[in-house]
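Sequence, please.
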């Protein structure tokens, strides 16, 4: 990264940290012998994350015959990776403190992120040219969900300049990252990747955050994942699903050309993503 970017980001005071439970959870999930009891013991150390997981498992999407009242059966019902994604998302997004002068529509931003996570799975499973790509659904989902976390850094620590960049994107119909470079000399992709490294997040996720607007620059082993997540971001924007602060003009024609879809098929895909996003229990958990 450019020296002036490092200097600017390193100057941030009171930078939030992820709860220790996230690192401990990531370590535990690398053990193929880990069980639900061990995962529960880790998560129970963080009441806020525990509450969010219980909220999801008792949502209409997962609720069984009886309400789940304790963490261990909740983890069994949801699955380890789903629990990890909920915990990670809740921890990252909790750093986005309420701000009456918010540059972003907070609920719109959450909906954009949730839809992008779902879109990554839909694209990987629906587009013939991605048929050879074997990426776990939970990886696609969390990468799509957190691809724009750099905007949280800008919203919290460079609010006025970020607001100006959003206004430029809106007035001129240009990509937000271009407007950010014009105003600040850096964009949310760089800022997000910097924070993800600080938090020791997965290299695949860091690559998605950094290069989702320019997949050709990503490390080869992550390039398919980055391309899918970058495309999911554009599909969600084209469908008007949530609002991530990017007001670039209609991208549908270039999307249709890139993935060899006709307009009707793209509309159907967007409708599918919208339907699944509307049913996501994360909407309630994140306050979207």
């Amino acid at each position: 990264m450019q020296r002036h970017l490092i200097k600017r980001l390193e100057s941030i005071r009171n930078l939030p940290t992820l709860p220790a439970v996230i690192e401990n959870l990531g370590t535990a999930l690398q053990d193929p012998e880990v069980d639900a009891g061990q995962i529960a013991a880790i998560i129970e150390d963080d009441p806020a994350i525990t509450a969010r997981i219980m909220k999801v498992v008792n949502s209409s999407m997962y609720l069984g015959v009886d309400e789940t009242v304790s963490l261990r059966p909740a983890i069994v019902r949801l699955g380890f990776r789903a629990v990890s994604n909920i915990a990670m998302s809740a921890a990252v997004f909790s750093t986005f403190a309420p701000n009456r002068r918010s540059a972003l529509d907070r609920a719109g931003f959450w909906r954009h992120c949730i839809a992008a996570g779902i879109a990554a799975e839909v694209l990987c499973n629906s587009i013939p040219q991605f048929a050879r790509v074997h990426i776990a659904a939970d990886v696609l989902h969390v990468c799509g969900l957190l691809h724009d976390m750099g905007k949280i850094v800008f919203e919290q620590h460079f609010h006025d300049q970020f607001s100006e960049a959003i206004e430029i994107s809106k007035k001129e119909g240009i990509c937000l990252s271009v407007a950010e470079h014009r105003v600040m000399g850096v964009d949310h992709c760089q800022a997000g990747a910097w924070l993800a490294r600080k938090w020791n997040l997965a290299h695949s996720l860091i690559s998605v955050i950094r290069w989702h607007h320019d997949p050709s620059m990503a490390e080869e082993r992550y390039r398919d994942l980055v391309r899918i997540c970058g495309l999911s971001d554009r599909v969600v924007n084209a469908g008007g699903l949530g609002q991530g602060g990017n007001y670039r003009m209609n991208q549908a024609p270039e999307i249709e050309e890139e993935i060899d879809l006709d307009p009707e098929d793209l509309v159907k895909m967007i409708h599918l993503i919208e339907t699944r996003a509307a049913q996501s229990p994360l909407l309630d958990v994140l306050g979207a």
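Residues 23 and 31 are 13 Å apart (CA to CA).
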